[in-house]
């Protein structure tokens, strides 16, 4: 990315959005993000990597503008309109490349990853609130359409079959067998699922760093009240959003019973806001296992390309534990447990 100082970022915000304050850079994988602190509230100034097209950013902003109307009770980043009436502006980098800049409201709170491991926490309440938030989000997106909704996204679960060649590089034999079985199951059924089950634009990345937790005088229990980072949005089975949410939440629970309880709590919360069909719930287990397989194969490829980065595999410890753990559980019992939420009133 281009070189830009905090002072330059602040100057751009003042020039285009007439907002003054102080700037502090935020960590970002490929973009440049700055938190803008002002007396009227906080914002995030986002300079996208030149690899992101206008259309990639437009679907994100369009979804946020749509959700502001369809999902007013969920806290989401607000799109700030520039003085010229635009919400995405071009910026020429020092290398002469064109990238784009945006300004969003800053969502206050703590990330789920930092809250979920605390002692004396009502885990069921937190997990249920996570399901409620994702259910509200998916309900708000159910009629959203955009010209880029069928774009290619690296982390679309549809790309799992294309990762088959990475299976040979998974060192543990039992893990290779697990990933092979669940990848092949997904590959054999995805087309039918897409033809018969509800599809919509989904967030596609409700990981534990994109889920924001808050507590207030009105509700002192830590609960999920916001979702951020819509950069991986795409059109897919709506059950995929729930499966991804569950995969990340399960990184913070380890015992078998806690794993089952977590899934049911999230599923119950989701069902209360955006009811799933019986057939969707019946494939939830398989979609969860497919997402775990995808995570393993994406990490395997990344490590093969960058073998000096041991963190890639360290971050996989929870994923690999979980796929083994779920595979060892009684499948029929899990299905009955998941389906039980259909009868909760």
Report on the structure:
It is a single chain. With 345 residues, the chain is of the alpha+beta class. The protein folds into 2 domains: 6-105, Phosphorylase Kinase, domain 1; 110-343, Aminoglycoside phosphotransferase (APH), C-terminal lobe (Aminoglycoside 3'-phosphotransferase, Chain: A, domain 2, Alpha-Beta Complex), CATH 3.90.1200.10. It is 46% helix and 14% strand. The chain is built from 11 helices and 10 strands. It has helices at 6-17, 54-70, 112-115, 123-141, 173-196, 238-249, 256-273, 278-305, 311-314, 317-328, 331-339, and strands at residues 22-26, 32-38, 41-47, 89-92, 98-105, 110-111, 199-202, 211-214, 223-227, 234-237. It has a 5-stranded antiparallel beta sheet, with helices on one face. A 3-stranded antiparallel beta sheet has the order 6-8-9. Strands 7-10 form a two-stranded antiparallel ribbon. The longest helix is centred in the last third of the chain and has 28 residues, at 278-305. The mean pLDDT is 94.
Provide a brief overview of the structure.
By secondary structure, this protein is α+β, with helices and mostly antiparallel strands. Helices cover 46% and strands 14% of the residues. It has 2 domains: 6-105, Phosphorylase Kinase, domain 1 (2-Layer Sandwich); 110-343, Aminoglycoside phosphotransferase (APH), C-terminal lobe (Aminoglycoside 3'-phosphotransferase, Chain: A, domain 2), CATH 3.90.1200.10.
